[in-house]
Amino acid sequence: MEFSFTKYARLMGRFDLTEKENPKCGWVNSAVFIAFQGTSISMTAEDSDGQDYVEIVVDGVARNWINLKKGVHEYVIEQGLTDGEHTLEIHKRTGILTGSIVFHRFSLPDGGSFLAPPAAKPLRLEYFGDSITDGAGIGHPHELAEAPHLDDGYMSYVGISARMLNAEYHTMAICGIGVWQDAIGNRQGLPEHFSGTLGKGTAPWDFPRYTPEGIVINLGQNDYSTPIDEEEYIAAYIGFIRDILEKYNDPYVFCCVGTMNNNYLASVNKVVSHFNQNGNGKVFVVDLGLIHPEVEGWGGRYHPGYQTHYRMGRELASFISAKTGWKMLKRPTIATECVF
């Protein structure tokens, strides 16, 4: 059975659809969702640099992850499944600086059929941030700085909080970036990438394709890692939120602080106060605290590891739920059957 992205796939995240049957993504957590009937499934994809990793989720459960080789290659995603209906999700675990992926097709080598793609989740969120939001360093030994195979956007606080809220989620995150300046003081911030599908200098993003009800921003740790004019930071942050509010339909905005540093908390409070005092009560500060290394351990080079990300995700989801009334998913009450 011939596969068609326009007929059988649902995309999550910003994809360049210049070639509709070859969607291209770069941002972490970009994902493809499909449904099929059969016992095995393969994927043909093209990676720009050979350093990207994707999470494989079958029937709602994360099963494995694989490294995509540079160029166009076919990958056996799953085999030996029961002969019935299944769902497949392919999530980009690595960030936009690691590479981009062009999806070419899916195939059912042992026969079967593609079905209508799984329905989207009822809630839409969008996250903006730096390496923490990217899931960089999450699985690294502390002394290891660069290890894309141990980065993991899927299990970052972004993925955790979004799935706890049963939400779709887009993520725009760049390691080392800030609102006003980057980690070494260069005047470049994430807001300048907001209008591009894959960032600054790329095809314009078609904003009506995705209108989130909730925005999460976690930017400031890199701004404040080098000398900065606080007023410039505050002005840039306010301007970024204004741009977001102009594009979307009155979303909630959650301005996070933490967890590698919190020396910008006072500045973020001033940003949020600006909107609150001008009549917008849907903008909030979320203090996610600091890493507790004796309890949670470190990720790579002082980044949060899995334990910290889980805590961050749960605290953020709980805060959002309390402010909006959006329900969190409940834990299962029946154990998953273990089949070996």
UniProtKB/TrEMBL annotation:
Instruction: Outline the extent of the SGNH hydrolase-type esterase domain.
Output: 128-276
Question: Could you tell me the keywords of this UniProt record?
Answer: Hydrolase
| Membrane recorded as keyword | no
Which Gene3D superfamilies does this one have? Galactose-binding domain-like, SGNH hydrolase
Q: Which PANTHER family match?
A: ESTERASE, SGNH HYDROLASE-TYPE, GDSL-LIKE LIPASE/ACYLHYDROLASE DOMAIN PROTEIN (AFU_ORTHOLOGUE AFUA_2G00620)
| GO molecular function, a single term | carboxylic ester hydrolase activity
Q: Which residues form the Carbohydrate esterase 2 N-terminal domain?
A: 12-118
- Name-wise, this protein is GDSL-like lipase/acylhydrolase family protein
Species the sequence originates in: Fontibacillus phaseoli
Q: Which domain of life is it from?
A: Bacteria
